[in-house]
């Protein structure tokens, strides 16, 4: 049994997708970050960086925070969705790191400055929208050469990238007309990943109101 601490955001959904894909038994503990529940001392013991997601594996007593680390932990635990060796393994790890260090932070900053910031700062919006568009160019190029991010097989890299792209690309395409040059292969990949029943279940954990 896995205790899963999460909220209705892309970083949480990567993990719920993996839990659903693997058919692991888990209990959801919603941490409402809009009500500062991530700062509660009991949660900080599990996730010292005060962010969701985090898990506690009741079978082993292992606690893991950081969504990328959780995906690697669950892949190792189940032996699934991370190729055992060779090029495909390192492609999966590369694209997982790309999401964790690039797409997530940059899309997060774009969302902050374009949507949430009380003062709209053109420099910040331009910087992060351009970086987001650059990252979509890199992703499109990868998906021209491979069906999934690690190659032929769907992996934890797709699970990490999917919730971020599904949630942001349509909004950026609409609000920054012409900025994303081509997303034909991204759209095809989005549909393939979306069509997986486990992805649809995982994207609803916990349900958004
Ligand atoms: N690098 C972290 C980022 C996690 C993260 O940013 N979580 C956000 C929600 S998506 C959060 O909990 N924010 C609460 C806060 O910053 O106080 C991961 O991938 O797990």
Task: Tell me what the structure shows.
Helix content is 59%, strand content 9%. The chain has 209 residues and is an alpha+beta fold. The chain folds into two domains: 2-80, Glutaredoxin, CATH 3.40.30.10; 86-194, Glutathione S-transferase Yfyf (Class Pi), Chain A, domain 2. A four-stranded mixed sheet has the order 2-1-3-4, with helices on one face. The chain is globular, with a radius of gyration of 17 Å. The model has no long low-confidence stretch (mean pLDDT 97). Bound molecules: glutathione (GSH). Glutathione binds next to α3.
Q: Supply the CATH class of the largest domain.
A: Mainly Alpha
Cα gyration radius (Å): 17 Å
Major β-sheet profile: 4 strands, mixed
| Total domain modules | 2
Helix vs. strand class: alpha+beta
Tell me the β content: 5-15%
Query: Approximately how much helix is present in the residues?
Result: 55-70%
| Mean of pLDDT | 97
Shape: globular
**Spans where pLDDT lies below 50 across 5 or more residues:** none
**Can you tell me the CATH architecture of the largest domain?**
Up-down Bundle
What's the short version?
This protein has 209 residues and is α+β, with helices and mostly antiparallel strands. It has helices at 10-22, 41-46, 67-78, 86-116, 122-145, 156-175, 184-194, 197-202; strands spanning 2-6, 26-30, 54-57, 62-65. It has a four-stranded mixed sheet with strand order 2-1-3-4, with helices on one face.
